[in-house]
Amino acid sequence: MPNITNTNQFYNLVPKDAKLERLATGFTFTEGPIWNQAGKYLLFSDIPEHRRHRWDAKSGATEVTQSSNMGNGMTYDAQGDLLVCEHATSSLVRIRPDNSHQVIANHYKGTELNSPNDVITARDNSIFFTDPAYGRLPGFGVERVQYLKFQGFFRVQPSGENLQLMADDFEAPNGLCFSPDESLLYVNDSTRAHIRVFEHQRDGTVANGTVFFDKIGDGDIAKGIPDGMKCDAEGNIYVTGPGGIWVISPQAELLGLIEVPENVGNLNWGGDEWKTLFICASTSLYKIELNIAGNKTPYMA
Description:
Blueprint: H1 8-13, E1 21-25, E2 30-36, E3 41-46, E4 51-56, E5 60-65, E6 71-76, E7 82-86, E8 91-95, E9 101-105, E10 107-108, E11 111-112, E12 119-121, E13 127-131, E14 151-156, E15 164-170, E16 173-178, E17 184-189, E18 194-200, E19 206-213, E20 229-231, E21 237-241, E22 244-248, E23 254-259, E24 266-270, E25 276-281, E26 284-289
Antiparallel strand pairs: 1-26, 2-3, 3-4, 4-5, 6-7, 7-8, 8-9, 10-11, 12-13, 13-14, 14-15, 16-17, 17-18, 18-19, 20-21, 21-22, 22-23, 24-25, 25-26
C-alpha cells in the first residue's frame, strides 16, 4: 500500500471516524455500481460470472440475472433506462424497464469495438464510453482477436446514431467522469497509470487532452490500477489505485486515500442524499458515508 498522508481537506470530505462497511462478499470480480434512487437499491456486475446483482438494505445482495454478457460499467440515462457495457459482445446496450434490449454501439466504421468498459451520460443526453481490450482477455472477457487497431473512447447519441471517436491514443482507457459544470472530461489510462483531462466543447466533442494526474501506481493490476473514477459535487476526483481510492483535488493535488482491503474496480455515489460511496472491490461490495455528495449527473437529478 502506498504511503499517502491524508490532508485536512481530505478529512473535510471523508470524516475521520468514517467506517468502511462490507455489505456482501463471495463474488469473483465486482464492477459497475449504479444506484437506483427510486427503488433504493444498487446494481453491480460480477464480470467473470456473467451475473448482475442487486443490493438493498433490507434484502442484502441478490442475483438479478445470470446472463449479463460479462457486463461491466453501468449508468442510467435521463429516461431511467439502464446502459450497460458488455465485454462478451463488445457492445454498449440499453435495457428498458420491460427488459427489452437495444444495442447502441458495437461497431466503429464497420469494425467491431474492442469491449466497452465504462459509460457516462452528458446533460445533452449524449453518451460517452471507453473501449479498451480487457473484454478480449481470458477471465475478464472472451478471449478473441482484437480488430480495432487502437484503444480509445467514444461519444454516441442515445439512439445509437453518430458514433464519434474522441481519442485513439490510449493504451487502456478505463474510468471517465465530468467535472460538475461539464466543462472538463476526465479519462484515465490504466496501463499508463494516469488521468487525462479534456475540454468539453459546446458541440459535445472534446479537445486539448493533457495529463491531469500521473503515477497512480505503476500499472501493475495486482497492486491496483486507475480503473473506476467519479467526481464529487466540488469537483474532486475519486479514482481507484493501489491501496484503495485516491482522492485528488481539481488542482491535481493528492488529498488522501480511502483505504480498502481489496483491489478496487469501481465506485459510485448513492443513498438518500448521494453521500454514500459504494465500492466494488474484487470479491466484495463495500460502502462508506462521506460529508459530500457526488456530482449530480443527469440520472441523479
